[in-house]
Recover the amino acids of this structure.
């Protein structure tokens, strides 16, 4: 499937600079460009590649000013990264398969509501009382517990497990290995051992949420663990019991959120960030990778480090740590000079 620069510009509202009739049939990173491919330039660190890339078309910002000639045709847009995402989504919808029907062997319990346009892959199990919305895709080897609700248009890739009573909204994507509704980590010390605290709550996942492979969202002890609308969770994330993740928050791989912590809306969380339990993170907070967050954070803060502090303080601390060797040398020198002065008296 080929598209010309003029056609692509028309789709994304861009303006063509160069040969509008040149065609492309695939995507490529700008540093790996080849004829027939479309690339994009969003990060200034990659600007030098644009002068040598072999890609036929490059998406650039409208304000981009080249320093020397460029062989490729340019399509100027407001946001190259968002535009390439739009194009990838268009191609995905044109080329992806749309399986339908119930494959065998699979199990559907009594009282299950399953729309005729749904897909249920082989070796999947849907427990009694589950409600599966329209155009839901449940790939092979999934487990859907009793009373689970899955909204219209959601996709569960192979091996997803959704425990009893949990709710998944519309147009959600759960990747392989996701577990929703396993017991929260609740144990009470008793007689030198630990007594299990029953986890009787559930999980509610709102619309348009995407959860990466092998991420776990635990059920509440009582009440609900909530994942807000539009949240994007990367692979290998742990969300503990009774947590709440606010709308449109994004969280990178290996982050861990301890029990009863509330993360606000539109937050950005780097990889390997750890949250203590029972704290509140405000809206719009940005947290750098590998940070440890032991306390509440007000809205709009940008923090990093362990324990996490305002980002500016962290950078100054890092500079000071880097200079500790030189500082130590100067202190020793001053001590030596002081001893010399004392000995001369």
């Amino acid at each position: 499937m080929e598209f010309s620069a003029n056609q692509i510009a028309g789709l994304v509202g861009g303006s063509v600079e160069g040969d509008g009739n040149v065609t492309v049939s695939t995507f490529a990173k700008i540093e790996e460009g080849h004829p027939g491919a479309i690339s994009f330039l969003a990060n200034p660190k990659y600007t030098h590649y644009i002068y040598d890339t072999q890609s036929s078309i490059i998406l650039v910002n409208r304000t981009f000013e080249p320093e020397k000639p460029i062989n490729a045709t340019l399509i100027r847009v407001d946001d190259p990264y968002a535009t390439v995402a739009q194009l990838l989504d268009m191609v995905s919808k044109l080329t992806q398969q749309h399986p339908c029907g119930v494959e065998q062997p699979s199990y559907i319990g009594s009282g299950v509501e399953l729309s005729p346009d749904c897909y249920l892959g082989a070796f999947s199990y849907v427990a009694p009382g589950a409600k599966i919305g329209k155009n839901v895709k449940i790939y092979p080897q999934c487990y859907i517990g009793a009373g689970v609700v899955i909204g219209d248009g959601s996709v569960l890739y192979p091996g997803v497990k959704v425990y009893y009573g949990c709710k998944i909204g519309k147009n959600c994507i759960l990747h392989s290995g996701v577990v929703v509704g396993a017991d929260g980590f609740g144990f009470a010390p008793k007689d030198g051992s630990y007594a299990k605290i029953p986890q009787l709550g559930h999980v509610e996942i709102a619309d348009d949420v995407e959860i990466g492979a092998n991420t776990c969202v635990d059920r509440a002890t009582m009440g609900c663990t909530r994942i807000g609308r539009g949240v994007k969770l990367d692979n290998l994330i742990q969300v503990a019991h009774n947590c709440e993740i606010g709308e449109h928050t994004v969280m990178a791989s290996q982050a861990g959120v301890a029990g009863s912590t509330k993360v606000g809306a539109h937050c950005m969380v780097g990889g390997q960030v750890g949250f203590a339990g029972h704290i509140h993170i405000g809206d719009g907070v940005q947290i750098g990778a590998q940070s440890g967050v032991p306390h509440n954070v007000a809205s709009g803060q940008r923090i990093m480090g362990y324990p996490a502090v305002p980002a500016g303080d962290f950078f100054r601390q890092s500079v000071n740590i880097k200079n500790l060797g030189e500082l130590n040398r100067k202190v020793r020198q001053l001590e030596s000079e002081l001893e010399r002065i004392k000995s001369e008296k």
The helical segments are 5-12, 80-95, 311-322, 324-344.
